[in-house]
């Protein structure tokens, strides 16, 4: 246990040192070779941009977070409903499966302009773009998870006199949670991408819009600052989902530990 | 519990394949009966018929005098794999069938807590299945089956996956528990020694398509200890059952 801690620190220290080294090389490289500000800003310039534009960045970050959360929430609700519907009705499953897959072969960058025509330059367009990006992993993972219990498990409950509802609640639903959370994790980062595409196209607010307009003005340091915040939001959101996962199914991680750790 | 002249056939593209033909078996309350027979002779089918998971194509299946019609939970089945639910703790797994019967959660857990000691699981109530050894997992599975309070238990090769030593421990333990519970047990196994040790009666099933072949009363006194295995009477029972088993196998060829 103690050993593991030390190793953990060692590994992360190495990562931090490597990052610091990269930053120094980058900073010195930009100075020595006198690289133009609009081509590649030095880390200190990016940091300055973060500080100086903090009010702007805060507003646009908030807009992005709102879009992302709304899109993710709707995608989750829709995904769960669709997966349950497909479980209940094999006909629906057969009808929806090709449509769902086709919807994923079309990148949001392509479908978003259509949304502009139908929905207009509004929050809805951004949210729909996010939903389109995020719902696929949720539907697929939950649908597969709900069908993961095998026949012998179902028969065991049937023999005990369980109703279909009891089999659903006591077997299918809990059995599907690990896969559902895998889907939610993928969807969490996909919803950031979706929000970016929406903002890029609608062009009113949000970090996607901010980065685009700063790039137009060749304010590259601000572009970097925006990109940094986008990835920070994505990572934080992913970590939140991972935390929820641990809360929702402690058994899963107990089991993992014993399997790999040799208790 | 009784199966009277039962037929069962699977419908396939090539036509019906008979699994059981004219199969009869009567198990009075409190008796421990083992079913042995070559692979594919329909042992598991007999279980599924009694559990109501399958419907016979002919004949009658009844438990406690009433005919079996669908899986209504008149018997309790312990499958080959323990099939514990990994997200439930030992205690939560043990009360699964009680919950299915609609017993309030609190009451079910109280009932299970009283039994934990008998099943050798004291101190492990809150553990998850992945933290248990194979023998303990089987004990949880058996506790879940026994706790359902059904008068008939169907055990389908419950110790098949355990190592020899653990298996011997489980035999002694199972006999102790059953002596206290007094339930009727129908037991499937491939292991003749296991069948002789545990049973009041051993039924040798015929190869595919044929019905009941032969049976043998095991009149050894109880309690039966580990030492019994090497006694002359025990070995005689074993030898005769092997003869019956291989006669069946040859008849099938």
Kindly summarize this structure in a few lines.
By secondary structure, chain A is mainly α.
Descriptive report:
Chain A is mainly α and 263 residues long. Helices cover 86% and strands 0% of the residues of chain A. Chain A folds into two domains: 35 residues; 224 residues, MetI-like fold, CATH 1.10.3720. Chain A contains eleven helices and no strands. In chain A, helix 3 packs antiparallel against helix 8 and helix 9 packs antiparallel against helix 10. Chain A starts with a helix and ends with a helix. By secondary structure, chain B is an alpha/beta fold. Chain B has a six-stranded mixed β-sheet with strand order 6-7-8-3-9-10, with helices on both faces. Chain B has a four-stranded antiparallel β-sheet with strand order 2-1-4-5. The relative contact order of chain B is 0.17. The mean pLDDT of chain B is 86. Chains A and B meet through helix 7, helix 8 and helix 11 of A and helix 3 of B.
Instruction: Considering residues with a beta carbon less than 8 A from a beta carbon on another chain, report the largest interface and each chain's count.
Output: A-B, 24 and 29 residues
- CATH fold-level topology of the largest domain in chain A: MetI-like fold
Low-confidence stretches of chain A: none
Question: Alpha-carbon distance between the termini of chain B?
Answer: 32 Å
The strand order across the widest sheet of chain B is: 6-7-8-3-9-10
Residue share in helix of chain B: 25-40%
Average pLDDT figure of chain A: 91
């Amino acid at each position: 246990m103690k050993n593991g801690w030390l190793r953990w620190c060692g590994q992360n220290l190495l990562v931090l040192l490597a990052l610091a080294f990269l930053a120094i090389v980058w900073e010195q490289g930009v100075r020595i070779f006198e690289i133009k500000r609009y081509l590649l800003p030095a880390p200190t310039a990016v940091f300055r941009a973060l500080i100086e534009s903090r009010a702007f960045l805060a507003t646009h970050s908030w807009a992005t977070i709102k879009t992302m959360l709304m899109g993710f929430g709707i995608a989750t609700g829709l995904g769960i409903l669709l997966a349950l519907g497909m479980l209940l009705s094999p006909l629906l499953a057969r009808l929806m499966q090709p449509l769902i897959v086709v919807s994923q072969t079309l990148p949001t960058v392509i479908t978003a302009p259509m949304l502009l025509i139908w929905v207009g330059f509004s929050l809805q367009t951004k949210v729909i773009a996010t939903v389109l990006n995020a719902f696929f992993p949720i539907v697929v993972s939950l649908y597969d998870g709900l069908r993961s219990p095998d026949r012998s498990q179902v028969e065991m409950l049937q023999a005990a006199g369980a109703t279909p509802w009891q089999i659903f609640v006591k077997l299918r639903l809990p059995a599907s949670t690990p896969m559902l959370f895998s889907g939610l994790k993928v969807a969490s980062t996909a919803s950031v991408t979706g929000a970016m595409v929406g903002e890029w196209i609608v062009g009113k607010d949000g970090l996607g819009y901010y980065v685009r307009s700063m790039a137009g003005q060749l304010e590259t340091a601000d572009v970097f600052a925006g990109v940094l915040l986008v990835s920070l939001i994505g990572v934080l959101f992913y970590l939140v989902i991972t935390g929820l996962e641990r809360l929702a199914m402690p058994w899963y991680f107990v089991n993992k530990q014993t399997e790999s750790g040799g208790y | 519990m009784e199966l009277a002249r039962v037929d069962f056939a699977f419908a396939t593209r090539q036509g019906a394949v008979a699994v059981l033909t004219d199969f009869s078996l009567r198990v009075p309350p409190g008796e421990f009966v083992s079913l042995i027979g070559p692979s594919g002779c329909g042992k598991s089918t007999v279980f599924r018929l009694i559990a109501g998971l399958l419907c016979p194509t002919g004949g009658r299946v009844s438990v406690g005098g009433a005919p079996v019609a669908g899986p209504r939970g008149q018997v309790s089945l312990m499958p080959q794999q323990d099939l514990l639910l990994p997200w439930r703790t030992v205690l939560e797994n043990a009360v699964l069938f009680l919950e299915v019967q609609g017993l309030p959660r609190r009451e079910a857990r109280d009932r299970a807590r009283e039994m934990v000691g008998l099943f050798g699981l004291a101190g492990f109530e809150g553990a998850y299945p992945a933290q248990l050894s194979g023998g303990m997992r089987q004990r949880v599975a058996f506790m879940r089956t026994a706790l359902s309070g059904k008068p008939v238990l169907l055990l389908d090769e419950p110790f098949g996956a355990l190592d020899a030593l653990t298996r011997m421990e489980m035999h002694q333990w199972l006999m102790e528990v059953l002596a206290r519970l007094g339930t009727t047990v129908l037991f499937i196994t491939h292991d003749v020694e296991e069948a002789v040790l545990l049973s009041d009666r051993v039924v040798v099933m015929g190869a595919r398509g044929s019905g009941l072949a032969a049976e043998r009363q095991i009149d050894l006194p109880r309690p039966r200890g580990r030492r019994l295995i090497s006694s002359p009477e025990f070995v005689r029972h074993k030898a005769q059952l092997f003869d019956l088993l291989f006669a069946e196998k040859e008849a099938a060829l």
